[in-house]
Amino acid sequence: MSYSITTKDIEARRKRDGRLVAGTAARADIGSFKTFSGWRELPKARRWDHLISKESAAREPCVLKKAAVHLKKPGLISLGGGLPSPANFPILSMGLRVPNGETEFSDAAAATEDGGAATQMGKYDASQPLGATSGGSGPAEEYDLSIALNYGQAAGSAQMLRWVTEHTELVCQPPYSDWSTCLTVGSTGALEQALRIFCDRERHDALLTEAYSFSTALETAKPMGIRVVGVELDEQGLIPESLDNILSGWDVQARGGTAKPHLLYTVPSGQNPTGATQSVERRHAIYEVCQRHDVYILEDEPYYFLQMPPYQRDRPAASSEPAPAQTPEEFLGTLVPTFVSMDVDGRVMRMDSFSKVLVPGSRMGWLTASEQIIERFVRHAEACNQGPAGFSQASLYQILEKTWGHEGYIKWLAHIRESYTQRRNTLLDACEDHLPTSVVSWTPPTAGMFHWLRVDHSKHPEHGKRSILEMEEEIFDQCIENGVLVGRGSWFAAEPDQPPAGLFFRVTYASASATNMTEAITRFGDAVRKTFRL
Amino acid sequence: MSYSITTKDIEARRKRDGRLVAGTAARADIGSFKTFSGWRELPKARRWDHLISKESAAREPCVLKKAAVHLKKPGLISLGGGLPSPANFPILSMGLRVPNGETEFSDAAAATEDGGAATQMGKYDASQPLGATSGGSGPAEEYDLSIALNYGQAAGSAQMLRWVTEHTELVCQPPYSDWSTCLTVGSTGALEQALRIFCDRERHDALLTEAYSFSTALETAKPMGIRVVGVELDEQGLIPESLDNILSGWDVQARGGTAKPHLLYTVPSGQNPTGATQSVERRHAIYEVCQRHDVYILEDEPYYFLQMPPYQRDRPAASSEPAPAQTPEEFLGTLVPTFVSMDVDGRVMRMDSFSKVLVPGSRMGWLTASEQIIERFVRHAEACNQGPAGFSQASLYQILEKTWGHEGYIKWLAHIRESYTQRRNTLLDACEDHLPTSVVSWTPPTAGMFHWLRVDHSKHPEHGKRSILEMEEEIFDQCIENGVLVGRGSWFAAEPDQPPAGLFFRVTYASASATNMTEAITRFGDAVRKTFRL
Is there a contact between B508 and A387 if contact means CB atoms under 8 Å apart? Predict the structure, then answer.
């Protein structure tokens, strides 16, 4: 069964629901934020008890938060939890200057009356009528600093959970009923929490991932005693046949006692470091292999909205005309469907992040997964971080909810994708112009921030005498000498004790200026030429 | 060797140091923020390699952050790390309205021109002269949103680390040379990270703590397979003789294979739940026992600055006259010295938090410990949270650094302590007036937010027939019936499988109004009277 909803549907549901009443540390009812009216009739997710670690299984609900159930009793006075009084918070109001979500999104535009909006959140906005200080009497706001800056639920505030739940339904339409969401402190932390749910040191658990993978993910898994197993990839990312082969032929003894893996970590769009994006067919095939071998999927999608049109060397110059207006649904239609959208079993935990599309410093993202997994995750969050900061929740609420709305946010995403597309084009142009194509080859990325360069080590004058790692170091050192920092392929090897599959470098087009990108690629090309004596 | 510094000394050092230059993801040099000129001559901390867990020992530095060392090379262009360009951050500026730190601190005062200050942080304040948009040419700011909201070091920004290092030196004067600091996402998360540094499931590690302890701390330790061992406490908190007895008589076999503990978790001031505060003599005695048994100390001090004068029933009415002005040094002189201040071995990790004295929603605190331990902690933070949110760091910077300074912050702390003192007095008055002292007894707390009530279970009409836990439940249920929520003593038992030492309830004076506190205590008294048939 499939369904779809639009931003208009969300607006209509909001109107029916009326004002969200959610005070300090209020629990959110995620179901109440779903717009598709038939969600309760969808099949339920599978249970994952057999995969859950000893540590995670042993987590009990926080006793003080459990006691909060009594707070519903009318007239009850709590001397229970030690929540400070907001009278003692030294912040009366917080304001942001942001683009207004209507016209242009540039810094310059945001600084003007036309293109910018000044948002403001007061300490008591949710408990007094709008404009109360100036004699007004509008309805109160739904969120304020007295709520955002006090202790809250580790899952996040109801106000932000409503927003991410709606956005997730708009983007993913999960095909099972008990899908849920919770906020995270960013996907880096969310991954560590996920690994602690699914992996036991004593059980000798393993983690499947792309043969070249996000280095921080690898660095997170290893100290926990998790054996990382690399799956081959091509220009469409992880290869399902390789995944199937590894799982079908798994030999515990030959693997030194490591149990057959039941967990896959993958970055489907603009994979870090290879830049590869899985097609929809590829995703379906991977999902099917995971179903067959009972593998749970951690879908990490920081770059999902940075999916770009294919790179073309000969293209019309970037126009100063605004791009034709797209509806939110048209924009979303250009994106490869998510794993969650095909997740009939509820075997996917999707990690979304605001880091790459808003600001990394929010240290805030969110999960989509079945209620069982979200509940285990939140139990851990109560101990390890208590959810994202109130300052972040208050700030993003002001931008996403009060200034942009869902439609404005999608416009922002389209703007950001356009910005990264131009950056990618600049870098790819420089590669075509300045790299020795006799030894350096690549596939133009269609998502994300990274470009993966393969250097043909067999053409190195000392091929056979020098190892790939030695050549990598030689080129890297020459790059530094030439004044460019690039990522060494070996930094991203899922199994660094195995011989490398090739000689690779990762470059990013995320932040350098156009001039600097071109200069940097020239320097990289010179380093390759010098070491390969071309 | 002991030393002391003042806020004036800090100001003088700052002046000598000049402008702090620390851009995006800059590493902080903690030593450069120390004011005591002789710190390098102090003895070094001991090494704790023998206590560090397998997981923590296996953590290697983040490869991408290591590569950042090359960024120092002049003229180098980085295509290395995927840091987004701040041009893509949709926030031009952020402003807060806060009390100005000079006169009054109330909401009402902060809303006025006289008592309030409007602070502002722009995106590029650190890279353009002050007032550049209006033609000005002052020196640039030291911190801005382009830095705060990008990826940063997991240890925290140099700008905030300078502040907490100075504050720590002012308060603690650590007596060893290689003490260091790093930011945390709050002490709840910091404790979990600390436990993962010092405890191994396979090693059957144990954690010593007060027999009644912070429930979230207990809930953090247990799923990790850590055996919690309760140490007896009295009105001055943890009893060193009890600690010594447990350690001296430790029998691994009798303890079911649990190794002799090497880790103590303690809340020295206003302990949660008992409200007890360790005297300076008590702290010295505890430290000495820990030295003798090679125990590392986790000092959790959320309530340190909420140390109050002793409670007196007959006291002058709260005066509307401002209290006599105190210098920062006078205020700090009223506080019991910290464990860090007596930590000649570097065996203490102190956890400080802004939650109880500024806002919980900052999800930001900091650690003080030896460089070795801070380094292990930060390695983990790189994987599990990447440090506190940039919105929090930017907000607290605006309040602490730009508006208050160290002296203003100490004034704020004195204000908050006064506010809690009045709250405590109200609650204690109500206890004297409304509780049946024939069965309920207590020691007035001199710090924190909690008050611990002992009910004499031997006076219960069904004493001998009913267990303490049954009586506790009966009273709790009657409390709910009467309309008051209190904490049950058993929620805080370090070893819930052991018979309880008594019948206890925890009440907080943190947030209820004076009227509600009095009413709530009356209801609690009625519940006790009813169940005890008084």
Answer: no
